[in-house]
Amino acid sequence: MKSNASGSSTYRSLAQQRARVATELGAASLQRFADICEAVKGIAADLSFDHDGQTRIRVSGRVHCEAQLACHRCEQLVWRQVNSDFAGVIAFDEEQAASWSQLDPDLDILVVGGANLNVVELVEDELLLALPKRVCTDDDCVHMPKMRYGEAAVDDEDDEMSAEDLKRFPFAGLKDAMQAGDKEQD
Ligand SMILES: [Zn+2]
Q: What's the pTM?
């Protein structure tokens, strides 16, 4: 069964119907996530509801989007796929979550703010957690400024390594660049 995300289905009724909700979300509705990204498109969520063994509401789902992020190292904007698969039981307040968590520390609990389905509430934290730590992976950061070989590096004498140094210590500049990137993130 597919429901409209903006409908007034309650989590309880969705679980009773073992409902599946597939929906697309606008970037504007995920404000916290959108604020971190340069741009976001194609946000799609697919959620399934049922009960766990003990009358709790269980949700399992997948959320996906494409996010344009700024690489701290090369300062380019890069489109990355952001995916998250998640599952957990729904708690309606922090106290409930805390008592469940005490009994079962491994339980994944999603705390919601109301009885009615709010897709954004369920998926926004998952997207935030799924953001890549580094926008470019070490190998595909094609714009890495300190890894210039040949003429470009020789032109720039001050603090930069010479082309000769780069040949001998190919990863020295990379390490600096990575540390600089880490500092920027703090
Ligand atoms: Zn990069």
A: 0.69
For ligand 1, the distance from its centroid to the CA atom of residue 132, given in whole angstroms, is: 12
pLDDT at 62 over 80: yes
**What are the residues whose beta carbons fall under 8 Å from the beta carbon of 151, sequence distance 6 or more?**
163
Distance 109 CA to ligand 1 centre (A): 35
Confidence of residue 112 (pLDDT cuts 50, 70, 90): very high
Integer-rounded Cα radius of gyration of the chain: 23
DSSP code per residue over 38-84: SEEEEEEEEEEEEE-TTS-EEEEEEEEEEEEEE-TTT--EEEEEEEE
Span 144-173, pLDDT tens digits: 555 445 544 444 444 444 455 555 555 555
> Rounded distance, CA 175 to CA 169, Å?
11
CA 69 – ligand 1 centroid, Å: 10
Which residue is it, tokens 């470019």? 136
Q: Which helix (H) or strand (E) segment is 25 a member of?
A: strand 20-25
Centre of ligand 1 from the C-alpha of residue 72, in Å: 7
160 CA distance to ligand 1 centroid (A)? 19
E strand or H helix that includes residue 33 = helix 31-36
